[in-house]
Design brief:
Layout: E1 6-9, E2 16-18, H1 20-30, H2 35-38, H3 46-52, H4 58-69, H5 75-83, E3 86-89, H6 91-100, E4 105-110, H7 114-128, E5 139-142, H8 143-146, H9 153-163, E6 170-174, H10 177-184, E7 189-192
Parallel strand pairs: 1-4, 1-6, 4-5, 6-7
Antiparallel strand pairs: 2-3
Length: 204
């Protein structure tokens, strides 16, 4: 790792535990029996893609869910079901970031959306006693803010150009293989974080 100067981290499945099954179950309880056929981490229909790239508002997303379900669901019920996948921050991993910051520039690159973003930011703020999650990083990049999603090459190139770092000197860590493959295609060094792994167990 002596040639690595920068590390880009994914969020969900790397620094924050998530369980999409909980969101699937929550929406099924609301009456969307086929929700898991429309949304997984590896496949999402246009409604979810558009939300994650900031192309639609939260209200448009809620209306889209009502259209899909043909049910008169309240915004808060949809939001709670959508946020059900967000679990706990990996506190040991976050502590490890503080050590890594002495050796590397740290960045975050996450496919997320304004609804999840607000929820996990508030959760971290409460957990940490008033700290801001983004302070762990030189810069945090969220898909809904920059209008791009992993694994498209454009999002990796955007981060490299915006941050002024080079791919050959940068390690990208993600739990989804398709995102690793996208990062590798633009020359980033990569590590595919497997379910049993934690970043504090890596030799960084």
């Amino acid at each position: 790792m002596n040639t690595i100067k920068n590390i880009i981290f994914d969020l969900g499945g790397v620094l924050l535990d998530i369980d999409t099954g909980k969101t699937n179950a929550a929406f099924e309880q609301l009456g969307l029996k086929d929700f898991k056929n429309n949304y997984t981490l590896n496949k999402a229909d246009d409604l979810f893609d558009n939300l994650e790239m900031g192309r639609i508002t939260e209200l448009e997303f809620y209306n889209g869910i009502r259209t899909i379900s043909q049910l008169p669901l309240h915004d808060t019920d949809i939001k709670d079901a959508w946020n059900a996948l967000l679990l706990n921050f990996r506190t040991e991993s976050l502590q490890y970031l503080e050590q890594l910051a002495a050796k590397y520039q740290l960045f975050l690159l996450s496919n997320t959306n304004s609804i999840h973003h607000s929820a996990f930011m508030q959760s971290f703020y409460e957990l940490s006693g008033g700290k801001f999650f983004d302070d762990y990083f030189t810069k945090a990049y969220y898909s809904q803010q920059i209008g791009l999603r992993k694994p498209n090459q454009a999002i990796y190139n955007f981060v490299l150009q915006d941050s002024g770092i080079t791919a050959a000197e940068t390690l990208f860590i993600d739990d989804l293989l398709k995102n690793i493959e996208g990062a590798s295609s633009v020359g980033l060094r990569t590590h595919h974080l497997l379910p049993f792994e934690r970043i504090e167990g890596l030799n960084l």
